[in-house]
């Protein structure tokens, strides 16, 4: 007789290596609900990540006239990216590169310390699959009820349960896709337009696409996405080493496994009572007792399940727990887990993080709100005027990154008798005043002339100086002035 | 390959029988839905062949039911772009061409159009940067044979110079030697005088004789002060810009054989919008009056 306090489940790990054939037929995984610390942690992280996703586009941020008041906005039409106090023009896309580097290295660091924590807790695939399984459990019941329902012939009750489940899934998908588009337009306006059918077609098609992918990935494909479609499990293998904490079955303690009768002595046998609870709760359909494997997303639900069982049979918890690779060969039930946080690998990742983070912070704090580009005409290189003087043409681009119109004056220095005027100016007008609208770029054609006598070489260095008439701030650009061979 | 399928001892997976340096290739099964995805792409491809241009035939190709062609889509895009600027185009032709500069939007539209029309129609003679060549005026400078105001440039582009259009302007440099109007010596003297007008050093006696010849034969077109006259297209001979070149033998050749280059009348080939765009673009190159 098995220990009556623990249910023995007849379950087969469908992703166990032996159960595969050429072109694997997919077997449905019906994960059992787990209870425990990690399950609670996962609920909390799910709440936080979903909240961030849904609330972020609705946060307002004052930017002054002409600027959008949405804190996070990717404005594709006007080519701007807004993130709270940061505003990025297309030519500043290296900030995004920096953010991606920071994200990637952070992931490397976390992975080298705690294994696939990203996969197990905060990856959208995990969060939404968890949410979809939660809905499934609400509608159809826990694992056993769902298995019975799967086997049952089609009936009104079964059909209505299925219909309700898929409907809720599609609604979640709609809300997911619906929230996504708010990152690309003013959220309140877009919401109104969406319901009055005035929103751009691309908004509806994006929502439709994301509804479909959310429904298919979270509801139908689930673990298939992680195992077969995602490259990340393969890449992460490179960051996991002997010191990395992963979800570990302590085989030295657990084996030899076998059913355990109440009051039977534990001596001479392992602590694993082969109840298969760890397999039943696994959303990936693996048996953690086979060791660390590709499919494991380290969601730690098997730890919760096993700890529950260990409590019932009066053994110390932690037969399955976060431990290093070496830990599985330690048979001590009271094993204390020590993490070596400081390792060459983690030091390297931290240094890169610090370096990239500092560069990003420095450049962000010193970001210029005025950019000037001077592009010299190359065809023709220079023009001889009727009085014998030499004229060069320049395109001056002034980027005003402030949300108000600014007035600038362009001066040119560097040669005796040098003169400059705008192409649009009237005859004899050398004031060179340019007004640049808020948060915009103005491109003006500037002509510069100098008497042939002041040119000593074919190319002379000159400076184009753009001065803000209000603040007096200046931006100096070096360029050259070409003339004929002397 | 082994007759019997070998199992990998750690994973229990079949191996393919391939082995490199002791590493055996596992024969891990693919998910079946992946296979169906592949069949799906094949079906998609067949559908694509049916609706899109796909297969080459002997003298044509299967054009597909959707009737798509990249040339057709480009033509559509060009037509759309023209249609999108219908207002700008209408405004450009109704406005006085010299007033366009006051309307920033129309002006920028005209400059962009003018730049591309210039590259297509004008750069062959005037150069891609409008810098000209001997005999083809540089349009960047401030010296104009037929006037550098927007209106005059517009007229020049529209009707051409010495073209076959009735409205064209004509002014010929006579062939003083060929037509026996002057002797070789006289021409040599005039050339010396003309060179001296823009600061060249020369033989004083020749310059004096040349000036007399100039006053008798050249002032009717080039003016008393030799600064030229736009109505005849007669160049200013006192400035630093030389149409055919500043060497004396070139000047002698010009006087002896005469000159008369042709600018086509574009009114017969381009629409008024394009001609206006060209006039404004040329004027914007920096030398416009």
Can you describe this structure?
The complex is a heterodimer of chains A (486) and B (289). Chain A has 3 domains: 17-236, no CATH class; 246-329, no CATH class; 370-482, Immunoglobulin-like. Chain A is 38% helix and 17% strand. Chain A has 14 helices and 14 strands. Chain A has helices at 37-55, 94-114, 117-122, 124-140, 143-151, 156-181, 187-195, 201-221, 223-229, 232-236, 251-254, 277-281, 301-312, 344-365, and strands at residues 72-75, 80-83, 86-88, 246-249, 320-323, 370-376, 383-384, 390-400, 406-413, 419-422, 433-436, 440-450, 459-468, 474-482. In chain A, the strands form 4 sheets. In chain A, strands 6, 7, 8, 10 and 12 form a 5-stranded antiparallel beta sheet that branches. In chain A, strands 11-9-13-14 form a 4-stranded antiparallel beta sheet, with no helix packed on it. A 3-stranded antiparallel beta sheet of chain A has the order 1-2-3, with no helix packed on it. In chain A, strand 13 (459-468) and strand 14 form a beta hairpin. In chain A, helix 2 runs antiparallel to helix 14 (344-365) and helix 4 (124-140) runs antiparallel to helix 6. The longest helix of chain A has 26 residues, at 156-181. In chain A, 31% of the residues are buried. Chain B is mainly alpha-helical and 289 residues long. Chain B has a domain at 124-284: Orthogonal Bundle (Cytochrome Bc1 Complex, Chain D, domain 2), CATH 1.10.760. Chain B has a two-stranded antiparallel ribbon with strand order 1-2. In chain B, helix 7 packs across helix 10. The longest helix of chain B is centred in the first third of the chain and has 20 residues, at 32-51. Chain B is elongated, with a radius of gyration of 35 Å. Classes of the chains: A alpha+beta (486), B mainly alpha (289).
